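User: two proteins, same treatment. go.

Assistant:
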Amino acid sequence: MNLTKRNKLLYLITLILIIGGDQLTKHLVASSMQLGQSQEIINNFFYFTYTHNTGVAWGMLAGHLWLFIIVALISAVLMIVFFKKTSRNEILTRFGLVLTFAGMVGNLIDRVVYGYVRDFIDVVIFGYNFPIFNVADMAVVIGVILIIIEIVFEEYIHGKI
């Protein structure tokens, strides 16, 4: 199998694993915990706290479901176009786009099916309780970080120095 076919297969597997893993973990939490219930995993650091989010991070813009759906659909089209315009050697950017796309789809499924996003990963670092998030949110953040890394270090990564 050549590199291009292998990369395409890797992107597809990643997409399926992220969307499937996101939906599976949300289902497991929603079926085993009550809304608002919190389960300590690591004291003063990591909890599963089941919440519904009708907004974005920190609940901003709560209740604007159609806005989020429209933005997600436009973003999906833009990510696909951008992916097709990247070169095959921009692996971090392409993988970042796949992660971001998969995370967006995971949360879009929740918005369309339930009218909210199911969140449950609750982390406290140095006394700061971060907004509760999910697997899809992690994929989006990691994807964006990969894209930024390739943009910032493009010359070094692609040997143009």
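Protein 2:
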Amino acid sequence: MAARPKKRGAESGDEEVERRLEELLFGGEEELLKRLQPEQEGDLGRTLLDDDSSDSEVENEAKSSLPPPKKAVWVDEEDEIEEPVDMTHRFRKNLLKSSTEKTLSVVKLQQRLKEQFQSAMGGMPSWAENKAKKRKKNKKDLDDESDDDEDLLRKTGNFVSCSDALPKGLLQIKNCTNANKSRPSDAKLTTTQFHPGAQVILTAGIDQSISIFQVDGKTNPKIQSIHLERFPVYKARFSADGEQVIATSIHNKMFYVYDMMAGKVIPVYNVRGLAERKVRKFEVSPDGLFLLLLGSSGYLHLLSMKTKEFVGSMKINGQAVAATFSPDGSTVYTNSDEGEVYIWDVKSRRCLSRFIDEGCLRGTCIAVSRNGQYVACGSSSGIVNVYSRDTCQHQTNPKPVKAIRNLVTTATSLAFNPTTEILAIASNATDDAVKMIHIPSFTAFSNFPVFGQKIIRLAQEMDFSPRSGFFSIATNRGRALLYRVKHYADF
């Protein structure tokens, strides 16, 4: 019974301590209530108005302290008059839309130049332009914006993304209008390549011409076409920055460089130090520094991409049948007609390693994935061996990750898509000999090509657009077939 009063005493002591702390922090209960409760109605409103008025007074005082804007001492009325630009000059003739135009205002000339630039670089596709206009007009929240996206995708059906990872089995792909429909070729196409930065595709072939088209999947209008006299094009490629096109021929030692920015076609004759009777196969380094030419007797020659001057050579045993750069441009992979693959360091031109392509009697083509993980080697038997890069760099007899046996004739063309989820393999020995291989399962998509249609006539070359949205095949019939890979949302 005596313990209870002590407990109450302890509790009263704790309450006293709490009360003192409250007074120190808040100034006591009465004072706290007085601070929280306004004395009269409308005090809070007046306080806010007073704060605003004080802010406005500060702003007005700051504005008044600024110096007044200076006026021009002299105004020449002739400065405000725009002088017309003479359009008969030879550098401006290509901007005229009719023969009656002799002069243009500065504003109209700027508009013409803008239109010409957008045309040359592919411009903005109509679906993206409509989407941008809709965003600018409505200025809605993110939910409304996503609704607009769904409506746009439902109308066009072109840019639909299903999931992050590409599933195996069936590939969501559809036929589009041929990339070169606005300028079809009557001879074999040897080149189809997408521009690295613009929504543009390049085609070239035996008809001695190089053509550039805008890619929209519907009309694919022609941007420009260049005819090279007595120069059937064996291969053509964009430079790494997309400002030049390099083209070689079947029987010529010279090659052409088309400067897209300057509009000039520059022939490159007799490169000093390059002892070759003809130049056909070549590769452009991804870093834009070098041009690699495949010569005779196993030689590979490096040229400066900037000056087109000879830098140095490398040599393998046998004949160099194909070569490709690593994604960073630091190494070169070359396969020979003897079934060996050589790996070279570009800067030192030293052989880092070489390995035997398993079961290969004669190498025919080679490709490296964009992420640098895989090296694919094609052979005359039609088998395509896919190796891990780390394995083939450190072993002389590496085992392939997968031996792809879907082709029954010589493998002549290989292409990885930019996300390293598809490997396209093809043979130019028979029609419809194209397969799309899913990675990493390394199984073929069963619905491409469609059985029995015979659309792909002797595939010569293949390429994926920069973000895998489109796929193109150059054929023996002069057509650049174009397909929309629906899994990928971008060009």
